[in-house]
Design goal:
Length: 282
């Protein structure tokens, strides 16, 4: 449904499908706390970190006020807010969703190589990629990329295109470690011994399992040049298995976990994986 309709009408439609909604005022931000809730006097959490015990009937606790109840949405306190609202916000985590907010063309290009396709919604500067499944929210997991799910709100920009995909581990791992401010290093593509490229010859899951286990061992046994080792190992795994579709999110998570056990950040892992994919033209 388009927001060319009144925001309240859009909100009621979303609420009917199980999406908790709230009105957003000018600046695309929630309404401020009412007089009774100002300065946390209500016992709630105006800082929006947790819902709190407040019983305020108004729409003044941002994501924590989001609701699917049509009686609340059309009640006098909310009705006044909808008349001033410029758009609809929603609580992704409350609907069992995660929004990967891609803020620019570089972030979109990264997502197209690193993440599975899912429902996509255009934004003013980039795109929202929406997955089925909730997780911890975190901003700036890599340049131009925020994760919006639990305890945050997102702006509703339309239904988007494409089917919803399940939330992949490749997104979850981004929120595991705070990103580093160091930009990824450009590495020379050298495949280590024992990881020859070519067509994936496995006929049983044991071949792939053995290959992933060897890759994990190669990373965890590195005593120096960890960055380069992680990149070369990712490159080797992708050169063997990247074109046949046998790698799963669980395999990628195992490799990322091994790298992070050696001090790599989630951002470094994602960048190394993307660089390896690009090197191989995947």
């Amino acid at each position: 449904m388009s927001e060319t309709l009144h925001p309240q009408h859009t909100a009621l439609s979303l609420a009917a499908s199980g999406v908790p909604v709230l009105p957003l005022r000018r600046g695309k931000v929630p309404f401020g706390n009412c007089t009774a809730c100002a300065d946390n006097t209500c016992g709630g959490r105006p800082n929006m970190k947790t819902p709190g015990p407040c019983r305020c009937p108004g729409v003044c606790h941002a994501w924590a006020a989001a609701t699917t109840d049509p009686a609340v949405i059309t009640s006098p306190p909310w009705a006044a807010a909808w008349r001033r609202a410029v758009c609809v916000g929603y609580h992704p985590g409350g609907a069992g969703l995660t929004v990967v907010d891609l803020d620019d063309a570089d972030a979109i290009a990264w997502a197209r190589t690193a993440l599975p396709a899912t429902r996509t919604v255009p934004t003013t500067r980039g795109e929202h990629w929406i997955y089925r499944g909730a997780m911890t929210s975190r901003n700036a997991v890599r340049p131009g990329v925020d994760i919006k799910s639990t305890m945050v709100y997102a702006r509703y920009l339309g239904p988007g295109t494409g089917p919803l995909a399940d939330l992949p581990d490749a997104v979850r791992v981004l929120a595991v470690t705070q990103p580093s401010s160091v930009r990824p290093t450009a590495y020379t593509a050298v495949v280590p011994a024992g990881f020859a490229g070519g067509e994936c010859p496995h006929r049983t899951s044991a071949y792939l399992a053995r290959g992933i286990a060897m890759a994990e061992q190669h990373i965890t046994e590195a005593s120096s040049a960890v960055h380069a080792t992680v990149y070369r190992t990712f490159l080797a795994v992708l050169s063997r298995h990247g074109r046949c579709g046998c790698l799963t999110d669980a395999h990628v998570t195992r490799l990322f976990t091994a790298a992070q056990s050696k001090g790599e950040t989630a951002r470094h892992c994602a960048d190394a994986w993307t660089n390896a994919r690009n090197r191989l033209g995947l």
